Amino acid sequence: MDLVFGLLWLLTVFLEGIYCQGVYAPPTVRIMHSGQACNIEEERYTERVYTIREGETLELTCLVTGHPRPQIRWTKTAGSASDRFQDSSVFNETLRITKILRHQGGRYYCKAENGLGSPAIKSIRVDVYYLDDPVVTVHQSIGEAKEQFYYERTVFLRCVANSNPPVRYSWRRGREILSQGSDKGVEIYEPFFTQGETKILKLKNLRPQDYANYSCIASVRNVCGIPDKMVLFRLSNRTASPTIKLLVDDPIVVNPGQTVTLVCTTSGGEPAPALSWVRGTGALPEKSVLNVGTLTLPAVTSEDAGVYSCVANNNVGNPAKKSTTIIVRALKKGRFWITPDPYHNDDNIQIGREVKISCQVEATPPEELMFSWLKNGRALRSSERMVITQTDPDVSPGTTNLDIIDLKFTDFGTYTCMASLKGGGIPEISIDVNISSTTVPPNLTVPRGKSPLVAQEGETVELQCLVSGKPKPIILWSRADKEVPMPDGTMQMESYDGILRIVNVSREMTGSYRCQTSQYNGFNVKPREAIVELIVQYPPTVEPVFTEIRQGLSRNIVMNCRVLRAYPSRVLKYEWRLGSRLLTSSQFDSRDDTEYILRNLQRESYGEYTCDIINEAGAGRCSFLVTGKAYPPEFYYDTYNPLWQNRPRVYAYKLQWTQMNPNAVDRIIAYRLGIRQAGQQRWWEQEIPISGMIQKGELLTYNLTELIKPEAYEVRLTPITKFGEGDSTIRIVKYSGGRRTSAPTNPHLREFHCSFEEESICMFTQDKSDDFDWTRHNAATRQIMYTPNTGPSSDRTGSKQGFYMYIETSRPRREGEKARLLTPIFNVAPKNPYGATNSAYCFSFYYHMYGRHIGTLNAYLRLKGQTSLESPMWTLSGNQGERWWQARVNIHPTSSFQMMLEGIRGPGMEGDIAIDDVSIDEGECGDPPPNNLRSLAPPKGAHIWQLCVTLLLALFSHRR
To answer: How many angstroms separate the CA atoms of 561 and 564, rounded?
Structure first.
């Protein structure tokens, strides 16, 4: 008995899984190509390669199945982080790149996910083909043979062209095709290090006939329609590498604002060299004016300084290059410091001791820097007590020192350091240093109440250090507690008034800040420093910031708001509100979250609930939108929806959808259907009533009729509950029937199933060249009085209301006449170049062949463009009994195809042949099921639990 109940439990779980899942399915992905491809191949290891010519349009389409409709994302790898197409990922089915470039080749990934199972990912490698113009470079060598008195002159012609795929080279001299061994004086080879990408033509010991026109032809063998490209080089006894002259000084020293003209001319070379200018640090300045070999830089600034090179190239030998340096004269950053007598460890100035005043300036060029000293405005010369020295001008920045030995009262005064450049043209820099009895070293303190400094996030704060002394030095600010930059991004900030101002302070700026005296503009003594603590308060960070809760009436809701971080970390209180109405408030205990429960939800309870968690710095807010709105419906895309209708001007469409989380809110009582023709403004609306509860995964259908061919329509579906309207979903319905005279096409075959329940018969068509047509019917309406003892008494599931297709063999039909039914045309992937076909499908159908005059049923595979029928893929003749059987056939089409089912009338009227449930699935067929499984298939429209009851009864019967 345990075994029985175990089996029952497993069966229940299985059936419930089927019932709950319904048509929900994880995503599958397939990449289809369009656009202007040269070739599409299936390489080994199932790698797809899409070849395209540079400059053409790349178009890839990601075909997905799955329900709910998967979200699609295209990405690209095989490149740096910045090597992205269109600057970002593409979030739609089609990836389109116009005028594709070579660097945009690589592997492209299509990822689809709908929340069920793992995301589906497929990739395709895009190979961009191109061929650049070839370039010929010439190198000459002259070597002296030992013990002989002549020179051997050898010339190498090297041909290079960038290409994909690898290029193939050929050489011509005039009209003569050169090849290895065709001329003893010619040798053709590929250097090993070039891996076949270059072809060198070697002319040994030049002869008179070697002076000629040489052509290098680069070819990629017309792949992608890329034509061959050729370059011509004329070799003569005057062929020589380039030489140039630079008609400027080196270096060129100029003042800011001047115009600089660099002139470069060729002095030799055959063919005539081409001249160009380059800058050592990068591109030429935008204001540059280039005229052949003359480069003009108007109104130069310090940013224009650098090395400029003239390059001459004629593809013979190495390019010639000559350079000059532009130096823009400048003076900047004048600073000073005072050094008390270092021999007595003095920190201040004392009479009778030594004092040194140092002055530092950055100069360009440094060798032009000149210093002079003034005392109280009068020139000061070096003497025994006033010693003026200057550091080596090659040391940058330059420094001058004034040593006052045996300081006297008469030495007090203002000393001025004057810095200038030789030749003038640049304003002088003067620095005043006052030496007096009031000149004292600095002292650094933090004002009372300024540390710790408490601020709130977003405010402007000022950290302050008081500095005394004369003169006051520059204050340097830095982080004392960690090695992180200051607010301006540098590691150290200068302040002349001792204040560090931070605008829009953030929580990351909390910490210790060090202020210290610099030697600049003050005493050169041990730095004084102090620490300022900054505390940045910020309001609580909470979660969730926003949550939508959909719930039906009379149910309970629990809302929770949690603190992630805050400073001060001890929050003060929380407040729950509905709109502006206060619901509850309290102090926080030891917990870091608060909870609010809505019991027995009523209509007036719907709305936006907020929870504010408050500290000294402000409040963090959790928001909850409680609503009874139904979730949006999810359109079902994976069926073959466009319905074929025989009426010439209209078509129908079978709209299918499931409801997202139908049990989350009150019962859906209806759907509001809106439809409008694409491009129109007006919506036509109607209601679709719903009886009973909608189950999760239940497939709902509605037929849209009277749609005008070939117009597209925008369809909007909105669920309605007692609460009101829910969220809408919109999709586009497109007509894809094509002309009536040709078979309809399904462009993207993945799976195809048809049970002939709709009048459209899944876009099957009757063959125009047969003798009569197949008929759609069901057992409930078919008149069998004329042909008893033949044909089915129900469809293949046992339902008398279910439809099937059959051939009526009553008069006027004659023996041997044929009726042919054609599936839509399906596109498949191309053939694998390595021999194995890429497209394997399982074609299956159910057949009923009952009657003593049964003829023959054939199944044919017809490829695109095929006019005559070959042998059938499957055939069966004669009476098979009053039951449905299943046939399965593996097919391997190599191009677009359709299946044909042919019924041939037998010798009498008791020969009706029927078919039902035709399907084509990707992949090989599995083992066919036993034909007696028909009894387990529920009638169409029957509840799934009827199957459950049948199986349970069978199990109990077996146990007894």
So the answer is: 10
